[in-house]
From TrEMBL, chain A:
Keyword annotations: Flavoprotein, Oxidoreductase
InterPro entries listed in its UniProt record: CO_DH_flav_C, CO_DH_flav_C_dom_sf, Diverse_Substr_Oxidored, FAD-bd_PCMH, FAD-bd_PCMH-like_sf, FAD-bd_PCMH_sub1, FAD-bd_PCMH_sub2, Mopterin_DH_FAD-bd
UniProt KW Flavoprotein keyword: yes
FAD-binding PCMH-type domain ranges (all copies): 1-176
Protein name: Carbon-monoxide dehydrogenase medium subunit
Molecular function in Gene Ontology: FAD binding; oxidoreductase activity
Automatic annotation (TrEMBL), chain B:
UniProt source species: Brevibacillus centrosporus
Domain of life: Bacteria
Domain Aldehyde oxidase/xanthine dehydrogenase a/b hammerhead: 20-127
The protein's name in its UniProt record: CO or xanthine dehydrogenase, Mo-binding subunit
Annotated GO MF terms: iron ion binding; oxidoreductase activity
Amino acid sequence: MIEFSYSEPDSLVELLEMLEEGGNTAALLAGGTDLVNHIRIGKRTPNKVISLKSVRELNHELTFCQDGITIGALTTLSAIEKHSVVREMFPALAEAVNKIGSTQIRNKGTLVGNLCNASPAADAIPALLIYNAVIHIVSKKDRRTVPVEAFMKGPGKTDLQQGEIVESIFVPTPPANSGSCYLKSSRRDGADLTIVGAAALVALSGEVRIGLGAVAPVPFRAHAAEKMARDEPVNLDAALDEAVKQANPISDLRASREYRLAMIKTFTRKAIHICRERIQK
Amino acid sequence: MEFDVVGKDIKRTDALKKVTGTLDYVIDQKMQGMLYGKLLRSEHAHAKIVNVDASAAKEIPGVYDVITSTDLPQPVPRFGPIKQDQPLLADRVVNYHGEPVAVVLADSEEAAQKALKKIKVEYEKLPSVSKLDDALRADAPIVNPDSIGMYEELGSNICGNWKFGWGDVEAKNRASSFMLKNVYEFPMIHHFPIEPFSCICYPENGGVAIRSPIQHPFILRRVVAKALHMELSQVRVIGNAIGGGFGGKGYPKIEPLTAYLALHTGKPVKIVLSLEEGFFSARRSSSRVTMNTGFDLEGKIQFQDVKVEFLVGAYADTAPRVASKSSYLGCGPYVTPNARIDCRAVYSHTVPSTAFRGFGMPQIVWAVESQMNEASKVLGIDPLEIRLRNLPKKGEILVPGDRPVDGDWEQGLRKAAETIGWGTEKPDGIGRGIAIGIKNPIPASLSKSIVKLHADGSVTVSVGTSEMGQGARTTMGQIAAESIGVPMERVSLIMADTGAVPFDTATAGSRSTVAMGNAVVSACHDIKEQLTEMAHELFADGSQEEVVISRGTIEAYGKSLSYADILAEYFGPNMGEVVGNGTYKGSKIEGHPVGGKADFWEIVFTAAEVSVDTESGKVYTNKLVNVSDVGCIINPLQAEAQEEGAAIMGMGHTFMEQMVYDDSGRLVNGGALDYRVPTIMDIPAEFISKFIENRDGAGPFGAKGIGESGIIAIAPAVAAAVNDTLGIRFRQLPLSAENVWKELHRESK
């Protein structure tokens, strides 16, 4: 039997208090779809599991304003992918979230949890990257915000410091007359780990944004490629070579490094085509 | 002939329990005072066990004992359906990564799990082989060298060599207009049942009872009795409902050890394996088939010279039978005037391979049918046409000395072709492929059934067949209900309990509907004969009138009685029972290469339509058609479900499945995350199962068996379709996006 204490604080103050007390032996539980598995296989051995579910300040809902959407710490993946406004305005996010796990996992799992798990292959992160999402962090002493690009530090590592939690993610409204999209390469269409994840955003202004997952220790924005794609839209192939240069994928059972490098170009090119089609509409 | 129950979409009797999660699987069962067993498994492919230190493990609270092979009776009891070669626990050496080395017994699963981590095993590593060519090298380390049985060749890893043939291949080799030689490989794959392996054993009546999701309870009984030196009557196997077997739960795995532990401790013992441990328990043999085929200018086969090599595991299990029986059909479904088949099974330091849906035929058919597709290209004859030219007619001989062709195969092939739109215009980028799968069931098998007609007119059917998801509980009920003439609701089944039901060979080889179905029909006839005698005895007054039994009513001598009436009349009120005995015995021929003639030919015609994303290599199966010749459908819902389930499984080995061993002989992808099987999201866009029903089968109402057919020809049909659109031939599976992309990349270089 694996033993740990379990608490369910009902306010943020109480939660942050507990978190500070627990130190690095405490683990946070929202959907539990990663944590429970990690505990089961011994990857994590917390003494204390603190549930976020009853914390009244943490949101289950998505909230909208003129500038964008705010996704709460308890907003489930299902709630995001099914939301009509997300599907319409942030299609890459809806598509990426839809590719995470299975229906059962998405019904329990949260986007914030997916982000904090910091898998190099996390589907939602490339989408958050192209929308320039901002992470709202809170601790007992302080509140701060970090761009998603700076939040990811390595496989399983984030910018979160001891005693801090992610309170919400703010996703700014994409530029006017733009299209966005997320595509995933995997061994099967049902729940699977990503071989290459490619998110793209193209605006009528010429702006191009590319977010890539599963091809480096952390998902990243392909800035050099973006710049080239904006300046020389006809020479997309050369731009995509820049994205490949930035990647450093591994060979594993899912795919070889060689295949991953090739699929960066294939999937990003497709994603950009789809974005361009979406602007027209 | 119109039926009342047969041919109807009767819902499975266990469906509601399955979808609500209330079916009583062994994994959920408990007994008073039960011990939980957990296995410590080898870290190495091949190693000497120098020392096992379980002292710390035994100190864990709740631990009852830790047992290794040195604690077992000596010599260590060994088991196996063909050869008694597999020790209950690794005997001084481990022969594959994952072989059980020790078992912890504890009063809870958690304590057992904790103790497992405290056992220290000291190994001395030995060289190992996990690939075919390595195992065949002259200087290869020999797997299990002490265990020489009936098939093996001394001083090599050859587990067996079988030769079949007829005609004169050498002469035709010189005379054929055109010859084609190719090598086709099929990967090592796992059954991946959703229900893990599990069993509970307990002492009973001076013997042992075994509760297990086992397909073949009578084989398990025999194997355990032999391993533990017991009488058959001292071993009772209670076959529980199975949550996915596919051949993997056919032959004994953890049961002999668990039975020993129950007898040794005098307590109920339960062992449940994890899904990951399933990979260490059963797999399909990988294969390399070298096809050398001669054709005349019209595309008719002149000869087949077939070399089959199966890579089997560290112990025989049933792999030798898989190898010999499948290679026996090494020429596929075609008229082959001259044939030479040479099959070898080769041991390796890997998980023992066993039966797997299709029993070797998916590997053989992958080669035979890919070869036909290649021949059609080279000869310039349409793939459908070349098959029609070589397909035998009903009544013709397929394999000399075996059952003649028992169906209209051309009808089935044309139906599959028509359904896929063969010959109609193809949109750009679309490829079509066609293939035929064939298999014979278990020759020389035996099924017995007891049917009881109770005093109230209800019926209990006892069969050794197990319910493994194929719906036998429902179809056997339908067969009995139809035969005896009562509604389905009045029929109950007792299945797979060797203490309660008469002998049956196995729930395998798509045989139950034919073999056990016939036994049930014959038991029902026995009842009707007894009822007829009873009617004569009760009412005959000198004259002998005809007794007519129809739909549960007996009409004779101007009377019309229900079953309950006549039983009451004959035996007295509330008393009596009529017991019918039924037997089906397959053809058993001394000296026949596989023991006897096929009960029927299981044949399937598969057609696929695909498109390929040439940039990623991903193959999209737009349409997949299976047409099986089933003679007569007992339950259309079940028949379709079997075909679809098998086809999806076939898509698994076609597109994604493969067990991977690293250079040190360790299995590296034995788990759900790294070994992918198709999901509902991966099925064909259009998925069609059709049937040929000419009522010409050897089973009840003219039925033939299905269950395996749907998987057999998926890979060659899909690969032919991919070839049709890309022009690239694949002689290895799986056709993963990356593998297809690599080939495309090679072409473009």
